[in-house]
Write a structure and sequence with these properties.
FAD/NAD(P)-binding domain; seven-stranded mixed β-sheet; disordered C terminus; 9 helices; alpha/beta; five-stranded parallel β-sheet
Amino acid sequence: MAHYQILIVGGGAAGITAAAQLKRARPELELAILEPSQHHDYQPGWTLVGGGVFSLEETRRREVDLIPAGVTWIREGATSFDPASNSVTTSGGSRLSYDILVVAIGLKLRWDAIEGLPEALGSGGICSNYSRAMAAYTWECLQDFKGGTALFTCPPMPIKCPGAPQKIAYLADDLFKQRRIAAKVIYATATPGIFGVPTYAAPLREVVAQRGIEARYNHVLKAVRPASREAVFQVNEGDSSREEVIAYELLHVVPPMAAPDVVAQSELAAASGFVEVDKHTLQHLRFANVFSLGDVSGMPNSKTAAAVRGQAPVVTANILASLDQKAPVAAYDGYSCCPLITGYGKTIMAEFNYEQQPTPSFPLDPTKERWSMWWVKVKLLPSLYWNRMLTGAQHERRFMPWTR
């Protein structure tokens, strides 16, 4: 079987960034990326596709153009992990061995966990920005909306970009008000509050109250009835629960998410199904030559592309230390960034760490809605993603949201 010093499973934001930084640090490394997709999507841009700001084409590039020079691209997926023998089996039937394994395979979207959704998605006003195929349909639904109830859902954590389910609700509400459409906007979330970080939850509650958006908490979407345009929720109230049916004219759904089966069913997984790593070193707790970053990693942090920007330097430093037979030398503080779009031209730049403390990169009150942060979200961050983050470049930390 083929052998590599470092094998990275997953060629998304986490895998490409880690590979690029490792090759910049030590160009002589024998490194391979296992990734079946021919295209790479800038998923943080899909909210803006759904809001009519970006075109879908702006969020996609060819994978081959992003693979770092000198890195072998194996165009297959992983079907099993065998950390005891330091090997991975691929979808093509090959076995690959490694000295160091990096797992960066992302999340699985569980559309099937909501009864009736897989068949109904993409028609009848049922849309989702969490699917590349559906993001443009979200914008179509917003444009075609004539009034009534616009319902936006959020599943139980963990999900990628926990702020995204409500961002599209704010954009929709803004658009409806601009067009003077009579709309009842409901944000029904499985979480007990509007946002998990108290510092940023407070201004978001004000946004909801000022705009007349109805926030309903502890609402878990269980089924969709497209024929009658109804969404069925399980509402958790303490130790009891009840069913609630909400009629809609427009329904934006965010599906539950989980670790991919190939990880969840492997020895690498914790009880949660995600890769079991130390939350600071990102090194596996039982297999010292395994590291993980990105959405599949079992860290108790917010799963965003910005978090990857904070994790990649830590993984790189600790992998190099491992190759030199040294203990980990770097620690991740849980940094993540969620640009909370609250309307067209308005964004709260929420940056925080494991302790849920604000960690702003700008000398401004981070709890305020700002046009400047909208500009950062729409203009600066995509450029940083494609031209700096995925190339492994390092930035000065000061005034840069993705420098951690």
